[in-house]
Amino acid sequence: MNFEELYQDLVLDHSRRPRNYGELPEAQVHVHGDNPMCGDEVTVHLHVGDGQVIDGLKFTGSGCSICMASASLMTQRLRNKTRAEAGEIASRFHALLTDEQPSEADPRLGDAAVLGTVRKFPQRVKCATLPWHALKEALAVSEQGGTDRQISIE
Ligand code: ZN
Predict the structure, then answer these.
(1) How much distance in Å is there from the Cα of 108 to the middle of ligand 1?
(2) Which domain holds residue 110?
(3) CA of residue 90 to ligand 1 center, whole Å
(4) Cα 65 to averaged position of ligand 1 atoms, centre (Å)
(5) Over the stretch 35-50, which tens digit does the pLDDT of each residue have?
(6) Which tens digit of pLDDT belongs to each residue from 76-98?
(7) Phi, psi angles (nearest 5°) of residue 134
(8) Considering its fold, how many domains does the chain have in total?
């Protein structure tokens, strides 16, 4: 299977059957992110437990297949990571889609690295990065002891 096929397969699979979709009753932080260009809306629900480890991470909302697949792949990838590690992986994901010179995908991105393909469609980049923006915001909010925030990426 080549990279394009792998991309299509994963996006289709994760957008049809999103992993970690739903409320997280024990969540400490909820960040609602919205991408008005496409109409994507994602809320990230986060719980950080002992040792600064993300032991709960789910999402709700609706959006295009790229956005839903990205949120699904992200939650799968960042669960059980420490707060610091998750922040770093999210930055690597962002760089993969937005750096002018495409770099090698960070191996810690795992399957989420296929979304690097989206950089070829600049008007869709925000669809892919929205959930990761919301997650980074959720980590910041949790560090500040907050609970809720809304962000919009334009
Ligand atoms: Zn979208």
Answers:
(1) 24
(2) 3-152
(3) 18
(4) 7
(5) 999 999 999 999 999 9
(6) 999 999 999 999 999 999 999 99
(7) -60, -40
(8) 1
49 alpha carbon to ligand 1 midpoint, in Å?
Answer: 31
Q: Quick one: which of 21, 18, 44 has its CA closest to 33? A: 44
**CA 110 – ligand 1 centroid, Å:** 22
CATH number of residue 28's parent domain = 3.90.1010.10
Pull the structure tokens for residue 134: 């919301």
Tokens of 65: 């297949």
Q: What pTM does this model have?
A: 0.96
* SS3 letters across 31-99: EEEEECCCCEEEEEEEEECHHHEEEEEEEEEECCHHHHHHHHHHHHHHCCCEHHHHHHHHHHHHHHHHC
